[in-house]
């Protein structure tokens, strides 16, 4: 039990420091406090701090040297991808041009109940399921699982989906997209997702669920997306109505 508690504390210290580094609250090139000072600040042992620092070093976020201490070496390759929620559908096509997508799974499967309900399908009705990892500058930032009704999915091939945005293929099939509903939350990375996005298991991810509808109100795509918060951010502009 004591060892588990120690691991939990080490992970807490690791997450706090990692968040500070990725958010630039701890600037690139900055020198971290000593193990002794970090242990005192976080109210843990030096062994616990050492474990946390070892994980940060493994991820190439910090560099540890006996002579010069611990220094932040994390340098983002580019600014995070930004999406404006208000214009989410318009931004999808633009994102397709700025980023690269890799198709890692493709097939036809019966729709699970939540997906069937969201798309207005019969229970177990067949859907096309695809999994894509989207990257920018060679760094993955999103893990996308999409379900499309089979009648639409069969209008394009696996090869086309690997090379073109799904939204473009939907419109080419004759679908006129009218609106979309989406929910945004947060989850922790499972081991398989962590490997795909190059983060540690248990790292926080932004979760987005989106259902896209055509002009007749029929669901044409169910998307479950997981984003690295250090590589992708969502923005929303709030405008005060003139009636207030």
Please tell me about this protein's structure.
- The chain is of the alpha+beta class.
- The protein folds into two domains: 2-72, Arc Repressor Mutant, subunit A, CATH 1.10.10.10; 81-235, Chorismate lyase-like (Chorismate lyase, 3-Layer(aba) Sandwich), CATH 3.40.1410.
- The chain is built from nine helices and ten strands.
- It has helices at 2-22, 35-42, 46-58, 88-98, 113-119, 150-153, 158-163, 166-172, 191-197; strands spanning 62-65, 69-72, 81-84, 100-110, 126-136, 139-149, 177-188, 204-214, 219-227, 232-235.
- The strands form three sheets. The protein has a six-stranded antiparallel sheet. A two-stranded antiparallel ribbon has the order 1-2. It has a two-stranded parallel sheet with strand order 3-10.
- A hairpin with a 4-residue loop joins β8 and β9 (219-227).
- The longest helix is centred in the N-terminal third of the chain and has 21 residues, at 2-22.
- The radius of gyration is 22 Å and the shape is elongated.
- Mean pLDDT is 84; it is low at 1-5.
């Amino acid at each position: 039990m004591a060892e588990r508690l120690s691991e939990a504390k080490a992970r807490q210290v690791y997450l706090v420091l990692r968040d500070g580094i990725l958010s630039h609250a701890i600037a690139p090139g900055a020198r971290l406090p000593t193990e002794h000072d970090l242990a005192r600040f976080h109210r843990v042992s030096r062994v616990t701090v050492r474990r946390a620092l070892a994980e940060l070093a493994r991820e190439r976020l910090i560099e540890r040297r006996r002579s010069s201490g611990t220094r932040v070496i994390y340098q983002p390759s580019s600014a995070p991808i930004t999406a404006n929620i208000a214009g989410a559908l318009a931004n999808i096509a633009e994102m397709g041009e700025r980023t690269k997508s890799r198709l890692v799974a493709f097939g036809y499967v019966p729709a699970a109940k939540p997906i069937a309900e969201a798309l207005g399908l019969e229970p177990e009705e067949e859907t096309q399921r695809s999994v894509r990892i989207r990257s920018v500058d060679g760094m993955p930032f999103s893990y996308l699982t999409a379900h499309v009704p089979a009648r639409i999915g069969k209008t394009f091939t696996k090869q086309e989906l690997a090379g073109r945005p799904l939204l473009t293929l939907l419109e080419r099939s004759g679908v006129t997209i009218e609106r979309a509903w989406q929910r945004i939350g947060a989850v922790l990375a499972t081991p398989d997702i962590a490997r795909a996005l190059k983060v540690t298991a248990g790292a926080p991810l932004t979760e987005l669920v989106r259902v896209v509808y055509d002009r007749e109100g029929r669901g044409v795509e169910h998307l479950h997306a997981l984003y690295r918060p250090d590589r992708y951010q969502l923005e929303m502009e709030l405008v005060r109505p003139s009636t207030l």
